[in-house]
Design a protein that fits this description.
alpha+beta; 2 domains
Length: 66
């Protein structure tokens, strides 16, 4: 983990290095899009790349059925 000053938080080292490169090149990026972790929520789906699964939360399933 490395400290990324613009977001005032620790992020994975490779992600921090990529963001620093983007800053140097003037490539825009937004903090809410800089997700990381073992499971991610992407457009309402729970994505687990380690298990290679994508699931929809229970409430979202119920809303879809209605």
């Amino acid at each position: 983990m490395l400290w990324y000053e613009p977001y005032k938080k620790d992020l994975p080292a490779k992600q921090t290095q990529l963001l620093q490169l983007w800053d140097e090149l003037g490539i825009p990026h937004e903090e809410p899009k800089q997700l990381w972790g073992t499971k991610l929520t992407i457009i309402g789906f729970d994505v687990d790349p380690n298990a290679m699964t994508i699931t929809m939360p229970h409430q979202a399933c119920m809303d879809l059925i209605e």
